[in-house]
Amino acid sequence: MTARAFCACWPAAPAAEALQRWPVGSARRADVRDLHLTLHFLGDVPVPVLPTLGAALRDLHSAPCVIRLCRAEFWPVAGVIVALPEVIPTALSELHAELGGRIGAVLPDYTTAPATAFRPHVTLTRRAQQAPPAVAPGPPVELEIAAVTLALTAPEPGGPRYRAFVSEPLRGWR
């Protein structure tokens, strides 16, 4: 048996609510409780491996940081509208790399995208059939990255929902 898994950072409620107010045209918004910044998509993971993956999140050396989301884009292949930063904080890139190494130690077949391909984003909509007339961001939103969550996807009739399997704070020690 497998579970669809990913590692992500969840925004605090005020940041999630601010992102929920960004204009998305007629596209179907993601539920505010499901807004997250994906660090690594793992795909289908054997359920017995999940506790080991969760343990790999403990004591990450990466420091907490803040990412400022200030751009919006329509990604036609996925059919989504996403919120993006202008600049990726160095600490977030370091977290992505450290976490990728730990995941690879648990899932030897897992290959992470190179750091140059890391595009941190928050998916605001699902199943957008076409780009809205204008994809414009709302006011910039600062997202505090202070913990990493191993999350599982739960299929629902209205679209996927996500639940935390384990969450670990970033301690920032080297």
Summarize the structure in short.
This protein has helices spanning 13-20, 50-56, 90-106; strands spanning 2-9, 28-29, 37-46, 65-75, 80-85, 122-123, 125-126, 141-145, 147-154, 161-169. The protein is α+β, with helices and mostly antiparallel strands.
Mean pLDDT: 89
Low-confidence stretches: none
CATH architecture: Alpha-Beta Complex
Instruction: Report the span from N to C terminus.
Output: 37 Å
The CATH class is identified as: Alpha Beta
Please state roughly what percent of the residues sit in beta strands, choosing from under 5%, 5-15%, 15-25%, 25-35%, 35-45% or over 45%.
35-45%
Number of helices: 3
**Share of helical residues:** 10-25%
Protein structure class: alpha+beta
Radius of gyration: 16 Å
What is the third-level CATH name, the topology? Answer: Cyclic Phosphodiesterase, Chain: A
Order of helices and strands: EHEEHEEHEEEEE
CATH level-4 homologous superfamily: Cyclic phosphodiesterase
Q: Shape from CA axes?
A: globular
Largest sheet: 4 strands, antiparallel
Q: Tally the beta strands.
A: 10
Order of strands side by side in the largest beta sheet? Answer: 3-1-9-10
Description of the structure:
The protein is 18% helix and 36% strand. With 174 residues, the chain is of the alpha+beta class. It has one domain (2-169): Cyclic phosphodiesterase (Cyclic Phosphodiesterase, Chain: A). It has a 4-stranded antiparallel sheet with strand order 3-1-9-10, covered by helices on one side. The chain has a 4-stranded antiparallel sheet with strand order 6-5-4-8, with helices on one face. Strands 2-7 form a two-stranded antiparallel ribbon. A hairpin with a 6-residue loop joins strand 9 (147-154) and strand 10 (161-169). The longest helix is centred in the middle third of the chain and has 17 residues, at 90-106. It is globular, with a radius of gyration of 16 Å. The termini are far apart. The mean pLDDT is 89.
